[in-house]
Design goal:
- The complex is a heterodimer of chains A (about 250) and B (about 100).
- Chain A has a single domain, classed as Ferritin (Up-down Bundle).
- Chain A is about 65% helix and about 0% strand.
- In chain A, helix 1 runs antiparallel to helix 2 and helix 1 packs across helix 7.
- The longest helix of chain A is centred in the first third of the chain and has 29 residues.
- Chain A is globular, with a radius of gyration of 17 Å.
- The model of chain A has no long low-confidence stretch (mean pLDDT about 95).
- With about 100 residues, chain B is of the alpha+beta class.
- Chain B is flat.
- Classes of the chains: A mainly alpha (about 250), B alpha+beta (about 100).
- Chains A and B meet through helix 2 and helix 5 of A and helix 1 of B.
Chain lengths: ~250, ~100
C-alpha cells in the first residue's frame, strides 16, 4: 500500500475505532448529560473517519467506499493506534484515554492545516474545531477527577499508569511517516511530541497527576499489529454489515 | 444508568438563538460546576445549531413568585388596558417587537 493511503488510513481508523468505543457508553454513562456528551464526541469522530476513509479509498484507487473500508477489512488491515482500541474501563479510564488522544489529535490536525495535500488540510480545518472541544471536555473531567476525591484520583492515576505505555506508538516515526514528512503531506510522528507533552503536562499539573516514565517498548497498531481487544471491537462493529451486506437505513 | 446526577446541582439553561435576540429558557440539567453546566448545555441544547450563546444559572439562585400570590400580584393589572401599547401604529419595518 502506498504511504499516502496508509497514512490517511491510520488517522481514519484511529478516529473510527475511538468513535466505536465511545458509542459503547450510550445508555451506560454516569448521567444522562454525559451520555449525550460522549455520544457527541463519538459522532464527531465518526464524521472525521468517514471523510478520511472516503479519501483513503480514492487514494487506493480500487473503488472501495468508506463502508467497504470500515466494514469489510480484517483486523490486521486496520491501522489505528493501539491506544484507542483499549476497553472503556470505568468512566475515569475512558476520560484518560480520551484526553491522551484528544491532545494528540489536536496537535496532529493543527499541523495538518499546513499540509501540501489540500484534501487533508480541508479535513483538518473542520476537525480541529471539533477536537478543541473534545480536549476541553476530557481535560475538564481529568482535572475534576484527578483533583477530586481520593478514590477518583486513585482511579484516574491508575488508568494513566495503564494507558501511558501505549502513547509511545503515537510518536514513533516509521517508514510511512518519514515519506509523508518528506513529501510535506503531514508531520513526522515524533514532531507531535513536544506540543503534546506541553499540553498534557499542563493539565496533569492541574489534575495533580503524575506522568509515568515513557516505556521503551512500543506497540504497532498503526502497522496492523494490534492488542487482543481490536478483534472484539470489529466483531461488533462489522456484524450488521457482514450479515446484511450493503444494508442502508 | 445510575442516578448520580441526582447529587449534582440543577442548572437552568438559557439560549440566545442568534445575535440581537434575548436568551430564552430552554430547560434544565445537572452538572457539578459552572463549566460543566455550559458544556452539558452545549451538548444537550445546541447540537442542532439552536444558539450562539449560553447562560447557565443555578436553579437554587432563582427567586420565584409564589403561585398562591397570583391574585395579589397579577389581578390588579386586568382592568388597566390603557397600559397596553395597542394605541400606537407599529411601522412595517419593525420585525421583532
Amino acid at each position: 500500500m502506498m504511504p499516502h493511503c496508509a497514512y490517511v488510513l491510520r488517522i481514519a481508523d484511529t478516529s473510527l475505532i475511538l468513535a466505536q468505543r465511545l458509542g459503547e457508553w450510550v445508555g451506560h454513562a454516569p448521567a444522562i448529560e454525559e451520555d449525550l456528551g460522549l455520544a457527541n464526541v463519538s459522532l464527531d469522530l465518526l464524521g472525521q473517519a468517514r471523510m478520511l476513509l472516503s479519501y483513503a479509498g480514492e487514494l487506493e484507487g480500487r473503488g472501495r467506499s468508506e463502508d467497504d473500508l470500515a466494514y469489510l477489512r480484517e483486523e490486521s488491515e486496520f491501522l489505528n493506534a493501539t491506544l484507542v482500541e483499549q476497553p472503556n474501563g470505568d468512566f475515569g479510564q475512558t476520560v484518560v484515554r480520551q484526553f491522551l488522544v484528544d491532545a494528540w489529535q489536536l496537535e496532529l490536525y493543527e499541523q495538518l492545516l499546513e499540509s501540501k495535500d489540500p484534501r487533508l488540510a480541508e479535513i483538518a480545518a473542520k476537525a480541529v474545531k471539533e477536537t478543541r472541544y473534545h480536549l476541553r471536555y476530557s481535560a475538564g473531567w481529568l482535572v475534576r477527577l484527578g483533583d477530586g476525591t481520593d478514590e477518583s484520583h486513585a482511579r484516574v492515576q491508575d488508568a494513566l499508569t495503564r494507558l501511558w505505555p501505549l502513547t509511545g506508538e503515537l510518536f514513533s516515526t516509521d517508514e510511512v511517516d518519514r515519506e509523508i514528512a518528506q513529501a510535506g503531506i503531514g508531520p513526522a510522528a515524533e514532531a507531535l511530541l513536544p506540543g503534546w507533552s506541553a499540553r498534557v503536562a499542563a493539565v496533569f499539573a492541574e489534575a495533580r497527576l503524575a506522568a509515568p516514565v515513557m516505556s521503551p517498548f512500543s506497540w504497532h497498531g498503526k502497522q496492523g499489529r494490534h492488542s487482543e481487544h481490536l478483534g472484539f471491537v470489529l466483531a461488533e462493529m462489522q456484524s450488521l454489515h457482514r450479515a446484511h451486506p450493503g444494508a442502508t437505513w | 444508568m445510575t442516578d448520580n446526577s441526582q447529587d449534582w446541582p440543577l442548572y437552568e439553561i438559557f439560549i440566545r438563538a442568534r445575535s440581537g435576540l434575548d436568551h430564552k429558557h430552554v430547560g434544565s440539567l445537572h452538572a457539578t460546576d459552572a463549566r460543566m453546566a455550559i458544556e452539558h448545555a452545549r451538548d444537550l441544547y445546541t447540537r442542532r445549531q439552536e444558539g450562539v450563546s449560553i447562560w447557565a444559572v443555578r436553579s437554587s439562585d432563582i427567586v420565584a413568585s409564589d403561585p398562591a400570590d397570583a391574585d395579589t400580584l397579577f389581578e390588579p393589572a386586568r382592568d388597566k388596558v390603557y397600559r397596553h401599547p395597542t394605541f400606537y401604529d407599529i411601522p412595517d419595518e419593525v420585525k421583532t417587537l
